[in-house]
Amino acid sequence: MGFVPEAQNDMIFSIICEELGLFGAVSVILIFLFMIYRFMLIADNAPDLFGALLVVGVMGHIAIQVILNIAVVTNTIPNTGITLPFISYGGTSVLFLMMEMGIVLSVSNQIKLEK
Predict the structure, then answer these.
(1) Contact indicator for 7, 1 with CB cutoff of 8 Å
(2) How far apart are CA 90 and CA 16, in angstroms?
(3) Which of the residues 4, 14, 39, 81 could staple to 59 if both were Cys, CB 3.0 to 4.6 A apart?
(4) What does the alpha-carbon distance between residue 52 and residue 10 come to, in Å, rounded to a whole number?
(5) How far lies 114's CA from each of 45, 61, 80, in Å?
(6) What's the CA gap between 112 and 94, in Å, rounded?
(7) pTM of the predicted model, to two decimals?
(8) What is the pLDDT of residue 6?
(9) pLDDT band at residue 1 using 50, 70 and 90 as cut-offs
(10) Nearest of 108, 98, 114, 113 to residue 40 by alpha carbon
């Protein structure tokens, strides 16, 4: 409706809630929770300590970004300018998130499956 300034950037979660309702909000949160869960599995099965720490760092970064963005949108904390990972508009944020995901996928590629 045009009430939120910079809706495509920092306040995209409020637009998702407005357009898709509770189902959309819960779906986005569940997708991020599933991604964090997968990061924990990758870190737990990483072949070395360095890979595990890399994955935990990326997991922490994305989790903090999600928590801060949703807290800002729900007016729990003051506006910080933190984007919602992979959803908010912004080239540099998405670029670095994709590089972090590449690091996590590289660590997960080195996990040996037991048969």
Answers:
(1) no
(2) 17
(3) 39
(4) 30
(5) 11, 30, 45
(6) 30
(7) 0.87
(8) 63
(9) low
(10) 108
